[in-house]
TrEMBL record:
It comes from Xanthoceras sorbifolium. This is Uncharacterized protein. The keyword Membrane applies. It comes from the Eukaryota. Keywords: Membrane, Transmembrane, Transmembrane helix. Pfam families: DUF247. InterPro entries: DUF247_pln (IPR004158). The chain crosses the membrane at residues 401-426.
Length: 427
């Protein structure tokens, strides 16, 4: 009897072992090329709208979704246009992508269920769609009168928005390689002197102004960037400024709110360095770069998520945390609006964004880039002298008439005191 039980157990174990070996064989090898991720569910739920595509799917994560199907016909039209400017054949492009298929699949953080043919087809149509968007943006002579994207500015802006979503990326290397494959056999020298880095730089010119980066950084960082979101991250993080890293717990580094700083007499000024992450405090003045929150929210949120999932650095993360410390209420935001720091947004929306932005950040103990700044702000707020001086100015010298009244009262008090002294002397 025992021998029979042992045989049954042995058979079960053998079956389980065979099942595991089958799973081992089905695993795709991990690769250091991985650079495109899904937004974690918990983060997505905090603000679904920031990470939901509006009109176009790029790459495999949202490929085939019914609500995005309308753009598939435009992709085929753009592919036809693209092929019309080069003698490189459709077959040449397909063979090229097929040879790069494994490398492309390795760029995604999960196994892509598409078969080889569907995957290659998707990459070609999506990559060429992006190339055409970049080309038509720089060379408006390529835009036909029947073009339904560039002739419709609002529709084009929706496409631009979707191109910066973390889940909606394909690697830069395939975009650049396909463009170069077309360029070496171009018709009528139509791409003469054109580079993918230059096309993307032109495409990002408006964004550079919004996030306060020099346009030249786009071309400089293009060769190292993995995709659009990574390119923006590199430009923002590697701008010309230096943040100090100090080993101090973040609990001691949390900054006072803008309202508390105002009550302590801190003045607020638009940052002079024109660099987004460069927030400075010196001699009672806090300099914060101009924040066009309504326009830059989606870009910053997607860069933050990519940094969190892919990078060792924490620049944008700590910037998000600092903003959430500073702007915790509409009153905080209103003070920044009054000082020209926040633009294009009303106070409730601005404070809501800052809080949501901070919630997507992660606290890394003993490593916070703004430790020195937060410590200086806290020390300034705790000074009784600063509080007394600020209270005097804000409550008694906040208008010319209030100042005159205080001065008059002081003069009257002095005259009364003088009269009293002389009266006592006369006795």
């Amino acid at each position: 009897m025992d021998h029979q039980i042992d045989d049954n157990v042995s058979n079960d174990v053998k079956s389980l072992a065979a099942s595991f070996r089958g799973k081992f064989e089905a695993l795709c090898p991990l690769s250091s090329d991985c650079c495109i991720y899904r937004v974690p569910k918990r983060i997505r739920q905090l603000n679904e709208g920031l990470f939901t595509l509006h009109i176009v799917s790029i790459g495999p994560f949202h490929h085939g979704k019914e609500e995005l199907e309308v753009m598939e016909e435009h992709k085929i039209r753009y592919l036809q246009q693209f092929l019309g400017r080069t003698q490189t054949t459709l077959e040449d492009f397909l063979i090229f992508i097929k040879d790069k298929e494994e490398k492309l699949r390795n760029c995604y953080a999960e196994t892509i269920p598409l078969g080889s043919q569907d995957f290659v087809e998707m990459i070609l149509s999506d990559a060429v769609f992006l190339i055409e968007i970049l080309l038509l943006n720089s060379f408006r002579e390529f835009v036909t009168s029947a073009d339904r994207l560039f002739q419709k500015p609002n529709l084009f802006q929706e496409i631009r928005r979707d191109m910066w979503c973390q889940e909606n990326q394909i690697p830069f290397f395939i975009i650049e390689d396909l463009f170069e494959l077309a360029r070496i056999r171009m018709i009528n020298a139509c791409y003469e002197g054109v580079s993918m880095s230059k096309l993307i730089s032109n495409f990002c010119s408006d964004l550079c102004e919004l996030v306060l980066i020099d346009k030249s950084l786009i071309e400089i960082n293009f060769c190292e960037a993995k995709h659009f979101v990574d390119l923006l991250r590199r430009c923002v993080e590697l701008a010309d400024y230096q943040l100090d890293i100090e080993n101090e717990l973040i609990y001691y580094s949390a900054s006072p709110t803008i309202t508390k700083l105002h009550r302590a007499g801190v003045k607020f000024r638009v940052g002079s360095s024109n660099t987004l992450l460069d927030i400075r405090f010196d001699k009672g003045t806090l300099e914060i770069p101009k924040l066009r929150i309504k326009n830059i929210g989606i870009f910053l949120q997607n860069v933050l998520i990519f940094e969190r999932l892919h990078c060792k650095t924490n620049y944008v993360n700590d910037f998000a945390l600092l903003l959430s410390f500073l702007v915790s209420s509409p009153k905080d935001a209103e003070l920044l609006i009054q000082n020209g720091i926040i633009e294009n947004t009303e106070s409730v929306a601005a404070s809501t964004f800052c809080q949501q932005f901070g919630k997507n950040g992660r606290i890394k103990y003993k490593k916070f880039y703004y430790t020195g700044l937060a410590r200086d702000l806290n020390a300034y707020c705790k000074s009784p002298w600063h509080k007394w001086k600020a209270n005097l100015k804000q409550n008694y010298f906040n208008t010319p008439w209030a100042s005159i009244s205080v001065i008059a009262a002081v003069i009257l008090l002095l005259l009364t005191l003088t009269q009293t002294v002389f009266s006592i002397i006369a006795l």
